[in-house]
Specification:
The complex is a heteropentamer of chains A (about 280), B (about 325), C (about 350), D (about 600) and E (about 270).
Chain A lengths: L8 E10 L6 E11 L4 E5 L6 H7 L9 E10 L2 E2 L5 H7 L4 E4 L3 H4 L6 H12 L6 H11 L5 H4 L9 H13 L5 E5 L7 H18 L2 E6 L2 H7 L2 E6 L2 E7 H6 L4 H8 L16 H7 L1
Parallel strand pairs in A: 3-8, 3-9, 6-7, 7-8
Antiparallel strand pairs in A: 1-2, 1-4, 4-5, 9-10
Helix pairs in contact in A: 4-5, 4-7, 5-7, 7-8
Chain D lengths: L1 H23 L21 E2 L10 E6 L15 H10 L4 E4 L4 E4 L2 E6 L5 E6 L13 H12 L7 H4 L1 E2 L2 E2 L1 E6 L2 E5 L7 H6 L6 H9 L22 E7 L3 E6 L5 E2 L11 E6 L3 H9 L5 E4 L4 H5 L2 H4 L1 E8 L2 E7 L15 H7 L2 H10 L2 H7 L5 E3 L23 H10 L3 E2 L5 E2 L7 E7 L3 H16 L3 E7 L1 H11 L4 E7 L8 H4 L18 H14 L4 H18 L2 E3 L1 E10 L2 E2 L17 E2 L1
Parallel strand pairs in D: 1-13, 2-14, 21-22, 21-23
Antiparallel strand pairs in D: 3-4, 5-6, 6-10, 7-8, 9-10, 11-12, 12-14, 15-25, 16-25, 17-23, 17-24, 18-25, 19-20, 26-27
Chain E lengths: L8 E14 L4 E16 L4 E5 L6 H8 L7 E6 L2 E2 L5 H10 E4 L13 H12 L5 H14 L16 H14 L4 E5 L7 H18 L2 E6 L2 H7 L2 E6 L2 E7 H6 L4 H9 L4
Classes of the chains: A alpha/beta (about 280), B mainly alpha (about 325), C alpha+beta (about 350), D alpha+beta (about 600), E alpha/beta (about 270).
């Protein structure tokens, strides 16, 4: 099943449109990138740059309509997910590619317990597991939740935001996916919690060796965790390279502007550089 | 939770006092009284009417009447029906089961129709089925309940398959137990449909909107991302959340168990509480009216409480008084 | 905002259709004295339960068939072959005062007496159902609008003030609304009707009474919802911004809060108008609504309680029911369209 | 996935189909056979003259009255309750509805003393209550003791009194009772003799402890309600039905010794309105039904299918009339009840006669009642054959005559045809009536249009019954009223209407002394008819009252709808009287 | 006496508590100490940064200063005058001097009003003498100041991007010519590039108009960038207060350290 040769994920000339007729927008416009086994790739860009659409497109999670997969292919383990049947796709979702989202508070179903929500994923994708509860406890334990057995009976709202995100991660990890897609996983959290979650992700990556696709706009996090950075601007990829390289020597003016406009701790500037979008558009 | 419920129940007392005072005054200031029907008969002497007025206490100022009524009611005595000459509690107890049965069957009917239809309309959104059900829901909501009841009566009397009214057949007492049960059911069918159809349409629309709302929520996306099959998503993740507001509506349904069928009972000639109470209002049989109002109000208040409790029950996010 | 909304409604097929038909209804109601061939009380005891007169094209003009009463015991009429009465347009009629002050002495169309033009048949005393339907629509169509106006004004005042100021006023106002909402609606309506009837004893005033009663029941719910919305709006930063600027509470309510309730109000208004129409119909049906000699759809419909209407097939007496049905559907659909436009998240009420 | 959805849909439809099928297959069940008891006949059994019938059959009657409120004679105030009580409790005498004669009831015979004040009743020997207890003079004495008892205020006490003085009721022996009236009381036999006799043995205890008014209510067990009538109560379901079964001790039998009634069961089903009872009859679910004129035609269409016949009974006893308020007094604030200038019109007999001429009674009958009605000219309708005076002044529809009379009375018209009185007041008044009665509403709207033709403006004001009663009976602040009274029976029932001091002397009630000569004359005649037992003489007095009423028109009589009765053809011995219920001789009914 | 020595704002022992009620009679059983005994001063013309995680009470302090919530105890001195418990009418003059900018650019502008009306409202209240034309001119000027065009004034808020709306919010605050502005997380909801523009704008305005800011944020880098002096809040209390440099280079309080430590660095 696992192809040793090629990358885990290869996106070729993907194009996703929203709407139809006069009001069509190209949310993702002819992009190509790849993620190798065990690699952490960050996709960075401002809101509306198409990074979330890219992430959700991997397993066709965008509702159609309004979204339309217009062109390109997404090769996961050599298979094009855009061409899979709904049934086969379901075997990829969760099992091969797992997701965590920005708002853990609304991403967990409020009326089911933690146990149910984790167990559901396990039962779906690992029918061989007999003691589902034990497995769920193990998953919670893995994400650093203390007293996992007691937490199982809790409802999402009884947990703090950080804990909720840990549960989301536990749920994602429960089926041992090949690729974890983390869509701005810490944006809604306080910095101290953000650090914990990022530390956790780094740990897990080391432990499980899975690939991570991290969607963020925070360069600090990128520097911290990502192996490679993909910069998106208005639906297109403007730069793609190893993290250190990109951060130190951004090639594209947009990347440079994006890095420059962030105030840096302990390095007080007189003025922040703002991005002149029109100028970048013109240069691109 | 316990203190919360207790507190809400205690709040009922001033509320019921206010309600009773309001209705008592309304009944008092409306022209005429229970004796109007007597006054309009030509062979009733004036002295007898005066005597009756004294006997019923109608000659006293309203606040005296109210206080004496209140005193009795607080002691659990709803008084006596002037036209039936039996204790009001007994009178209402005679009629309550019929109304209760009708309310419950129509509730079940409404739910049995509304939930599946609503779910299917949402699942097959914008399909012919969705459009047809939306259309029939509009129709059901737009036809006056009493008019529908009237049409049902006409239909029954023309077609002859369903009885034209009543609770049981004339030969009811001479039927076997199974026959008697069937007899009750047979008489319930038309009123149930008439009373339930409006509710079904409303519930269906709510169900559909809720489903569509929930379908767009992020946790449904999460479930999809987990690879949960679509039908499980719909019937477990979505339905369970979408039905919550409906479950709480059961509390409000409780409010109407005894007072929600007045129009239908009257038009369809179904001998329940609604008919009795409507007549009591028309005849100004005061103690019956007051008892009906007190019971109706209590059920409304308790129904609201039940709705709140149900809400906490179905939605783990809501807790009172932690 | 309003013109924008109108534009949006007209862009949707269902919305445009409903709006146009409703406007036609209102125009017809407004010009009822002109459009109706007869006054509401014009009787013809020799033509009771007359079926709708057939309209034909005869000798180059519109004409109505003439009918003969063949069996007075069951009001059976038969068209007399070859007998017609031409329809005249802009015919002379007894002078009446349109809108109470414009004297008009013509009607749009009619036939010469003793022939009668019954587009929708006649009722028990030979009155023209079509004319009565037109006049009756004035009651049925305005009752919702006026009722909504009253409940909205009261609801906004009470709910807005309660939500904004909170405290004692809030408690008193909310206990008041709870009190009204704690009485089963129909009971309260009947009790109010009986208690207040003596102050509105003229048949025209009964209309006002019904509106007052229905509004009295309705304002409590509106006030509570508006209070809730006010409470949540009150925590929106733009309200804080206005407070921080030193804006007075009344101005904040008027300028910042109420306009933001507009979309909610327009949707609930649309969706609750049917309640008033059906409420009037139900009361009139029970005999405690609009009274003769006034007319309303509900009152007209109460005639069909009589079995003979069905058994002798006086189907045209059911037209007020159809009118109610259509109007209510139109309002419901339009309400939903408006809701979809201004606030799709607004829940449909159970 | 689509397949799953289909499966769910499929099972849903199947479920619905099965449920529907289950509901539509009527459940069959055997009907139990009635067991009859045959205790011996009483010695003074009443043998009917008709040929004997045979036992069996259920007679079903649907009553739109909504059911009895009580079975207690002292409490009953409405017709349905009185009807139920009359079915189980017999009076000393009965009335043959067909011949309108007084015939023996629980008393086999009676005598009246020469001074016409003492009545002696001889009770039937051997009559038993339905529970087997013997019926005796004690029951009669007990009944009247209860009626006159101050603790039990009831409407009968004053009916059974003259000038507030009760009758003396004495037990002579076990089977003989004597009544002594303080003055001559013309309708004694019908009113008092026909009143039901209560069972002393069953009710004594309630009378003793003062709870008699609460006894025999709708919650009482049927067996406790003992009977002397043709039926006793088998079961009662409030709001639903009342089931009677034959009284095993009934005192009538046919000439073969078969005890009446022949019926196995008599069931009255209660419904809310006339429509429902009509529908029941027209679909063959009941055995008889009173039919209003407007429904006759379509009900007749079912005669063949359901094997019934609609019989015409002629004019009904409902008397519809309108009147002008002629009360010249003032209210507490000194404001006259009626504007003085209007009072002047109302007191002018020519005005009233003009109005009467202006009413299109034939039109109402033809249009509203499908030709099935009768114009009225006086207080009695032709249904009351015994007391109806056909020779009255009539006011046929004639706008010309009306105009003449108005002109004579000093009224005149302007160019627009509007009527003014001599003092230039526009003739305009408000007609009040209650809103509950549709036919009356139609008459009101027709009246309004008729008056418009005369140039008179009538405003119509339909009121709640309570408000209306208050206006005409207490506050007197109205101009014109319309009412319907169910008449019939003895003129004594009209005392409160025709006496000028009467409570229901609507045009000017509770007068200290008669305001006009003709009212004084009516007072005199009414008192005279009350105090003679001579039928011819009473008729003469009452006919004159009717004549005066028709000439002076304090009440302007309108119309009475004709009355129709549908009865299933399967019954023998159906005898439909001109007025009153058709089941008066139900004990003689049997299946053909 | 020594006028320049009086700080613009002195806060001493400020407490803001919210009651918790429970039980049958809804008796008060305790309180949330949103702000618990907090003291600090703000000098004229400086920016004081206030950082803390969600729920630390930083927003409540900001709102207490402009009286959107009522303080429970302590004193707030503005220009040396105690304004803690003034009645609304007495506080009115201070509303001209103290203004606020909100976090959420979507909710802080009334969607039913045009930009002109939103900004002009402040003018109507505090400069009632201005006529319509003068007000329009002033609004145009204010829009120019925050980098918008005068023709924007007749549009509605929904026609603007988040950054533009935040500019409008700033223009509204500036309309009354305030001395002191509470910036309540003004850039938290914005994209990084827009954030930079707004921060720059705030700094420019401070320079031009001599404004004093209380800058509330949870992003330590932004706070460091803009502030002269920084307050660190945790659970209703100020755990550390020092100059920006001192805090970032040499944090004293363990919480501050933890906070700084958590920030990922490029």
């Amino acid at each position: 099943m696992t192809s040793v040769s090629g990358p885990l994920l290869k996106v070729n000339n993907l194009q996703v449109d929203f709407g139809s007729g006069d009001t069509v927008t190209h949310a993702v416009n002819d992009i190509s990138f790849q993620i190798r086994d065990g690699e952490t790739v960050a996709i960075v860009g401002e809101s509306g740059s198409g990074k979330s659409v890219t992430a959700l497109s991997l397993t066709r999670l965008l509702p159609t309509p309004p979204a339309h997969y217009v062109g390109g292919e997404i090769l996961f383990n050599g298979r094009n997910t855009l061409a899979l049947s709904e049934n086969d796709l379901r075997k990829v979702r969760g099992k091969q590619i797992a997701y965590i989202f920005q708002e853990p508070g609304t991403s967990l179903n409020p009326v089911f317990t933690i146990e149910y929500q984790i167990a559901e994923a396990i039962q779906l994708h690992r029918p061989d597991v007999t003691d589902v509860r034990a497995e769920a406890i193990r998953a919670l334990d893995l994400v650093g939740i203390r007293n996992p057995a007691q937490r199982l009976g809790d409802y999402p709202h009884q947990l703090s935001g950080g804990m909720q995100q840990r549960v989301m991660i536990a749920m994602a990890l429960a089926c041992q996916p090949k690729l974890l897609v983390a869509d701005e996983p810490t944006t809604a959290l306080d910095v101290t919690i953000q650090k914990q979650i990022m530390d956790l992700l780094r740990d897990i990556k080391v432990k499980t060796g899975m690939s991570i696709m991290l969607i963020t706009h925070n360069f600090g996090i990128i520097a911290d965790i990502a192996d490679r950075v993909v910069v998106m601007f208005r639906g297109k990829i403007v730069e793609d390279g190893p993290t250190g390289e990109v951060l130190r020597h951004p090639k594209h003016p947009y990347t440079r502007a994006l890095i420059d406009c962030v105030p840096k701790l302990g390095a007080k500037q007189r003025r922040l550089r703002a991005i002149d979008h029109a100028e970048i558009e013109a240069s691109a | 939770m316990k203190t919360y419920i207790l507190r809400r129940l205690l709040l009922m007392i001033p509320m019921l006092l206010g309600v009773s005072l309001l209705v008592f005054v309304l009944v008092y200031i409306s022209p005429g009284n229970y004796l109007d029907a007597l006054k309009a008969q030509r062979d009733i002497p004036a002295e007898f009417i005066a005597k009756k007025e004294r006997e019923l206490g109608l000659d006293r100022p309203w606040y005296v009447q109210y206080v004496s009524w209140l005193g009795r009611t607080v002691r659990g005595d709803f008084g006596e029906s002037w036209s039936y000459r039996i204790p009001v509690a007994e009178l209402l107890a005679q009629r309550a089961p019929a109304t209760l049965a009708l309310s419950l069957t129509s509730l079940v009917f409404a739910w049995a129709i509304a939930v599946p239809l609503g779910v299917f309309a949402a699942v097959y959104r914008n399909s012919i089925f969705d459009k047809l059900s939306a259309l029939s829901a509009y129709a059901a909501l737009s036809i006056p309940e009493f008019f529908l009841a009237l049409l049902a009566v006409i239909f029954a009397s023309q077609w002859g398959v369903f009885p034209t009214g009543g609770l049981s057949s004339i030969d009811h007492d001479y039927l076997s137990p199974v026959g008697q049960l069937w007899d009750y059911v047979h008489h319930l069918i038309l009123p149930t449909i008439v009373l339930g159809i409006g509710g079904a349409a409303g519930l269906m629309r709510v169900m559909r909107t809720n489903m569509l709302d929930v379908i767009q929520s992020e946790y449904v996306m999460t479930a999809r991302a987990k690879g949960v099959p679509e039908n499980v998503i719909m019937f477990r993740h979505v339905l369970r959340n979408a039905i919550n507001p409906l479950v709480t509506s059961l509390g409000f349904a409780f409010s109407g168990l005894l007072s929600g069928a007045v129009l239908v009972e009257n038009v369809m000639n179904y001998p329940g509480l609604g008919q009795l109470i409507f007549q009591a209002f028309m005849r100004k049989d005061r103690d019956v009216v007051m008892a009906a109002v007190i019971i109706g109000s209590s059920m409304l208040i308790i129904g609201n409480l039940i709705a709140d409790i149900l809400l906490a029950w179905v939605d783990p996010r809501i807790r009172y008084d932690k | 905002m309003t013109s924008d909304l109108l534009h949006q409604i007209l862009r949707r097929r269902a919305g445009a259709f409903c709006l146009v038909v409703l406007i036609l209804f209102y125009v017809a109601a407004f010009f009822a004295p002109l459009l109706a061939p007869y006054a509401t009380s014009d009787q013809d005891l020799t033509k009771t339960y007359h079926p709708p007169t057939g309209v034909v094209w005869q000798e180059g003009r519109l004409a109505v068939r003439l009918y003969k009463l063949v069996d007075p015991t069951c009001a059976k009429y038969e068209a007399e072959p070859g007998q017609f009465a031409p329809i005249h347009f802009w015919v002379k009629a007894p002078t009446y005062h349109f809108l109470g002050f414009i004297p008009v002495s013509h009607r749009l169309f009619g036939v010469e007496a003793p022939a009668r033009l019954y587009l929708l048949g006649s009722d028990e005393t030979g009155r023209d159902v079509f004319s009565r339907l037109l006049y009756g629509s004035r009651v049925s169509l305005t009752i919702g609008l006026i009722g909504i106006l009253i409940t909205t004004v009261i609801g906004l005042t009470v709910g807005g003030l309660a939500g904004y100021f909170g405290g004692v006023f809030d408690s008193v106002a909310m206990r008041g609304t709870e009190l009204i909402m704690a009485i089963p609606g129909l009971y309260l309506i009947i009790a109010l009707r009986a208690a207040l009837a003596k102050y509105f004893d003229d048949s025209d005033q009964i209309f006002i009474l019904i509106v007052v009663i229905l509004s009295f029941i309705g304002w409590a719910g509106t006030a509570r919802v508006i209070r809730g919305l006010t409470l949540s709006l009150r925590n929106r930063p733009f309200i804080y911004a206005a407070e921080a600027l030193g804006q007075g509470p009344v101005t904040i309510l008027w300028k910042h809060l109420f306009p933001n309730l507009f979309s909610y109000l327009i949707v609930t208004s649309m969706l609750s108008i049917p309640g008033y129409i059906l409420g009037e119909a139900a009361l009139s049906f029970l005999g405690i609504g609009i009274q003769e000699p006034s007319t309303s759809w509900g009152l007209m419909l109460s005639q069909v309680q009589d079995l003979k209407v069905f058994m002798l097939n006086f189907w045209w007496l059911l037209t007020p029911g159809l009118a109610i049905f259509i109007t209510v559907i139109l309002f419901n659909v339009l309400g939903d369209v408006v809701r979809d436009i201004v606030d799709p998240k607004l829940k449909t009420q159970v | 996935m689509p397949s799953l959805r289909l499966t769910v849909l499929n099972s849903l439809f199947r479920g619905v189909a099965i449920t529907l099928a289950a509901l539509l297959i009527p459940a069959c069940s055997p009907r139990q056979k009635l067991k009859r008891e045959f205790p011996p006949l009483p010695k003074d059994v009443d043998i009917i003259t008709k040929p004997p019938g045979r036992y069996g059959g259920i007679y079903i009657n649907v009553d739109p009255g909504g059911g009895p409120n009580t079975f207690n004679y002292l409490v009953a105030e409405d017709a349905t309750s009185m009807g139920a009580i009359g079915t189980v409790l017999e009076g000393l005498v009965r009335r043959n509805s067909l011949t309108e004669e007084i015939i023996p009831g629980l008393a086999k015979s009676w005598e009246v003393s020469p001074d016409n004040k003492t009545y002696t009743f001889h009770l039937r020997e051997g009559v038993k209550w339905s529970d087997g207890a013997p019926f005796s003079a004690d029951d009669v004495v007990f009944t009247f003791a209860c009626i006159y008892d101050e603790r039990f205020p009831n409407r009968h006490a004053s009916d059974y009194s003259i000038d507030g003085k009760p009758f003396k009721v004495e037990k002579m022996d076990n089977l003989t009772v004597r009544f002594i009236t303080p003055d001559i009381y013309a309708p004694f036999l019908e009113m008092v003799g026909g009143g039901p006799i209560l069972p002393k043995h069953a009710l004594q205890k309630f009378a003793d402890n003062g709870t008699l008014m609460k006894a025999w209510n709708i919650g009482t067990h049927p067996r406790e309600i003992v009977s002397t009538g043709m039926f006793r109560i088998a079961s009662f379901k409030p709001g639903e039905r009342l089931v009677y079964e034959p009284n095993p001790h009934y005192w009538r039998a046919d000439n073969t010794g078969q005890r009446l009634p022949y019926l196995d069961l008599y069931i009255t089903k209660f419904v809310r309105d006339q429509n429902a009872s009509l529908a029941a009859f027209a679909t063959g679910q009941s055995d008889s039904e009173g039919i209003t004129p407007d429904n006759v035609e379509w009900v007749r269409r079912g005669e063949k299918a359901h094997n019934y016949t609609v019989h015409e009974r002629g004019p009904s006893t409902v008397c519809n009339f309108l009147w002008f308020n002629q009360n010249p007094e003032k209210d507490k604030s000194g404001k006259p009840f009626v504007e003085p200038y209007k009072l002047k019109w109302f007191q002018d007999v020519r005005f009233r006669q003009a109005v009467s001429h202006g009413i299109n009674r034939e039109g109402i009958i033809k249009g509203v009642l499908f030709g099935r009605g009768t114009p009225l000219w006086g207080p009695e309708t032709p249904a009351n054959t015994k007391w109806f005076n056909p020779d009255l002044q009539k006011y046929p529809y004639s706008p010309e005559k009306a105009r003449e009379l108005l002109k004579l009375a000093g009224f005149r018209w302007n160019e627009a045809g509007e009527l003014f009185d001599s003092a230039e007041n526009r003739v305009s008044f408000t007609l009040n009536t209650n809103q509950e009665n549709p036919i009356r509403q139609h008459m009101a709207t027709v009246f309004k249009e008729n008056m418009k033709d005369l140039g008179i403006e009538v405003k119509l004001q339909l009121l709640d019954f309570g408000t209306f009663v208050k206006k005409i009976g207490e506050s007197y602040d109205y101009e014109c009223g319309m009412l319907g009274l169910t008449g019939g029976g003895d003129p004594v029932g009209g005392m409160s209407v025709y006496l000028s001091s009467g409570r229901m002397h609507e045009w000017y009630p509770n007068q200290k002394k008669p305001a006009t000569a003709w009212e004084a004359r009516i007072d005199e005649l009414m008192m005279k008819q009350l105090k003679t037992l001579n039928l011819a003489e009473r008729k003469k007095y009452w006919f004159e009252v009717q004549r005066i009423m028709s000439e002076q028109l304090p009440f302007i009589y309108l119309i009475t709808p004709n009355s129709y009765e549908g009865v299933k053809n399967r019954w023998e011995n159906v005898e439909i009287p001109k007025s009153g219920g058709i089941t008066w001789n139900l004990d003689e009914y049997y299946l053909k | 006496m020594n006028a320049p020595a009086t700080p613009l704002l002195q806060v001493e022992n400020l407490k803001v508590h919210f009651p918790i009620t429970a039980g049958l009679l809804q008796r008060r059983i305790g309180e949330v100490k949103a702000v618990d005994d907090v003291s600090f001063t703000i000098e004229r013309g400086t920016t004081v940064g206030l950082v803390g995680e969600s729920g630390s009470g930083k927003t409540t302090i900001g709102r207490a200063l402009i009286r959107l919530v009522n303080p429970t105890g302590g004193t707030i001195r503005y220009n040396g005058k105690d304004i803690t418990f003034l009645r609304e009418s007495q506080f009115r003059p201070y509303r001209k001097k103290i203004q606020i900018i909100f976090q959420d650019p979507y909710n802080s502008l009334n969607p039913r009003l045009t930009i002109f009306k939103i900004i002009s409202e402040a003018l109507e209240i505090h400069f009632p003498a201005l006529g319509l034309e003068q007000r329009r001119a002033r609004v145009a000027e204010l829009l120019g100041k925050v980098g918008l065009k005068p023709e924007h004034m007749d549009r509605y808020p929904h026609e603007f991007s988040g950054g533009q709306r935040q500019r409008i919010g700033i223009a509204r605050a500036l309309a009354v010519e305030p001395e002191f502005i509470v910036c309540d997380e003004p850039v938290s909801a914005l994209d990084v590039s827009v954030q930079a523009q707004i921060v720059n704008l705030l700094q420019d305005l401070q320079e031009e108009l001599g404004l004093t800011y209380l800058f509330i944020a949870h992003d330590l880098a932004v706070v460091e960038h803009i502030s002269d002096f920084v307050l660190v809040m945790n659970q209703g209390k100020i755990v550390e207060a020092a100059t920006a440099e001192a805090i970032y280079q040499n944090p004293q309080d363990p919480y501050t350290k933890r906070l700084l430590d958590a920030v990922p660095k490029i």
